[in-house]
Amino acid sequence: xxxxxxxxxxxxxxxxxxxxxxxxxxMRHALEALGPKTNIxxxxxxxxxxxxxxxxxxxxxxxxxxxxxTTAATASGxxxxxxxxxxxxxxxxxxxxxxxxxxxxxxxxxxxxERNEDIIFVCYDNxxxxxxxxxxxxxxxxxxxxxxxxxxxxxxxxxxxxxxxMAAHAVPYAATASIAYPEDFMAKMAKAKxxxxxxxxxxxxxxxxxxRHGSELSVEVAARAVKSRVFPLYExxxxxxxxxxxxxxxxxxxxxxxxxxxxKAMGPEIEAEFQRNVDRSWQSLxxxxxxxx
Length: 293
Hints:
CATH class: Alpha Beta
Number of domains: 1
Helix content: 25-40%
CATH topology: Rossmann fold
Number of helices: 12
Structural class: alpha/beta
Radius of gyration: 18 Å
Number of strands: 8
């Protein structure tokens, strides 16, 4: 079976995502890497609506839709049940947005990581609660507009570092990935599948609706996030060994910010501070990675 045929078998037509949705692109790549023996747990969020109205589904694998806070707990129980049934070789994929990972779901995720449950947890990060009206989350970057951080009160707090939090749990594998670099993303998903224990992938998934950019620009926006070091690509093994993934030449953050309407109210002082924070985080990451140059 060709890769194209496999993708069509696992993710069919009819999803209900917005045009250019990064999270929809991401699911297709993820299932291509994991294959048909995948069971998905999805909490409230964008993807819980993308799937379709029961009994219809755009995904050709089992999917459990669960409460916002319970993704990792449900995935843990599902994996235990599959093993009890003699189907331990099947993959359990927890697939949650930043609200269901950084905020509402972090307690269950922390518990699963502490127990080292054999699941893959992917956070498709579109940096706000997009499904319920573009409210800010702890993944929303400083200087960004959302409906709860209007132009008169842009978000001032820095984005939470979820990979560092997961590395502090000493999980076997944690990594960042982007829809703009599908080969890197799929390789990391395949690697996660080969490792037993808790695996965490922080996936950058652009959102034209919430970020206020054209639907045709989703991949380019995601690529500029990597190039500007707003979202660098790297891996962490066992919470200790940090390794940089192949990275493109570095660019300033200005082009990335100006592609998106959510940053249009950002003044020069806030933009300069944004650049300084990106530079500090990048230098900190370089010091951690044993293969950084």
